[in-house]
Each structure stands twice: as structure tokens, then as C-alpha cells.
Design brief:
two-stranded parallel ribbon, 9 helices, 5 strands
Length: 220
């Protein structure tokens, strides 16, 4: 079948074509859902439709702005880190692999769109920009990578491999438990994906993703 379907050759050439075609098709498919979500977000709480969060770390450690529908109150990211009243919650946040099982910052609409990954749909724009891929490792925050590597020093070998490719909207860890997976296991799955990257692996993950979105399995 040829190496164009596997490894670096696939990741560098064919994968980009697949990404653009799928991103355009999915944007057209999800456009009505995006309109409803945007209206619901504006009616539900004060603030913009899109989340205002710090940049993520992409391929080759390049930072980029990720597009996401806002699922939290405004300034939620900065509030958690700077408000002394939330210090205990922030410590819990870091211990819980940068996830909170019961996060008071999430709006009522936010709970629904996060559970069903509707907040992730705008990342298709990142795919068209070339920041992300449809399938790939998680796009991590810089402070998340630094602090989690201190907790799990054995993961440094994985992080280097993970940052060699574009992060994805969905990926191996998302269809393997999502937020229920701790950082060390998550980054290992991301590295495993990079080591075995192929068109067939991407198609397998893409076909599994709708079920994860519908059921909301592992989401917080």
C-alpha cells in the first residue's frame, strides 16, 4: 500500500489533505449546532461566545490560540490561578490532572456542551489554519506540561515525541477514557499514537469519536 499511508510521510503530506477535507465537511455539517450553541451561551451567561484562555503548546513547541466555545464564566482560567479564595480548588485542579470533577466555574450550558464535546467544534478552524489536526495528541497548556512533568518525571521522554506533531481535536486518549485518564497514562497514549501514526489509525479514532461525543463518556 506504500509508506504514504504511515509514519512521517503520511503525517507531513497526506494527513494535511485529509484534515482540510474533513474540517470543511464537518464545519458544514455542524454549522446549525454551532449557531444554536452560540445563542445558548449568550443567553445563559455574560461573556463572549468563544473562550478566552491562554495559548496552547503545538507542534515544535509553537504556541497558538485554540478556538473553543465558552463553557465557563468569564476569566475562569485566570480566576482559578489568581483568586486566593480558590487556592484549595487550584491545588485540587493540579492534583486531578488539570481537571475538576465538580468545577464551580462551569455554566449550566457549559456542562452540556463539554459533556458532548460541542465546545470543541470551533477547533476545526484551527485545523484549517494549520495549528491542529483532526486526530492527534492533546494540545496542552504550557504550565500544565511543566507541572505535570515534575509530578511524573518519567513522562519527559513522551512529551518530546508528542510535541513533534500537530495536536488533534480528537485522539487516542480521548477515545480511551478521556478525562478519566491521568497525565502519565494520557501522555503515554499520545506518544504511542505518534509512534504508530497512520491513515488507518486516524480513521479508527475518527469512527470511534462520535460515540464518545454522544455518550459523554469520561467527560468533566
Amino acid at each position: 500500500m506504500g509508506s504514504i499511508f504511515t509514519g512521517k510521510t503520511y503525517e507531513k503530506y497526506l494527513k494535511k489533505v485529509v484534515d482540510i477535507v474533513l474540517a470543511l465537511a464537518l464545519l458544514a455539517l455542524f454549522f446549525p449546532i454551532c449557531i444554536v450553541a452560540a445563542i445558548a451561551i449568550k443567553l445563559n451567561s455574560k461573556g463572549p461566545v468563544f473562550a478566552d484562555v491562554p495559548q496552547r503548546v503545538g507542534q515544535d513547541k509553537n504556541s497558538f490560540k485554540m478556538f473553543k466555545f465558552r463553557s465557563m464564566i468569564i476569566d475562569a482560567h485566570q480566576m482559578l490561578r489568581a483568586d486566593p479564595r480558590l487556592k484549595r480548588l487550584y491545588e485540587q485542579y493540579k492534583r486531578g490532572n488539570y481537571k475538576l470533577q465538580k468545577d464551580p466555574r462551569i455554566t449550566s450550558i457549559g456542562k452540556f456542551i463539554r459533556k458532548h464535546s460541542i465546545d470543541e467544534i470551533p477547533q476545526l478552524l484551527n485545523v484549517l489554519k494549520g495549528d491542529m489536526s483532526i486526530v492527534g495528541p492533546r494540545a496542552y497548556y504550557k504550565d500544565e506540561l511543566e507541572e505535570q512533568q515534575e509530578i511524573y518525571p518519567e513522562t519527559k521522554q513522551y512529551v518530546k515525541r508528542v510535541l513533534s506533531v500537530r495536536p488533534g481535536i480528537t485522539g487516542l486518549w480521548q477515545v480511551s477514557g478521556r478525562s478519566e485518564i491521568n497525565f502519565d497514562k494520557r501522555i503515554a497514549l499520545d506518544a504511542q499514537y505518534v509512534d504508530t501514526i497512520s491513515l488507518w489509525k486516524d480513521l479508527e479514532i475518527i469512527f470511534k469519536t462520535p460515540w464518545v461525543m454522544i455518550t459523554g463518556k469520561g467527560a468533566v
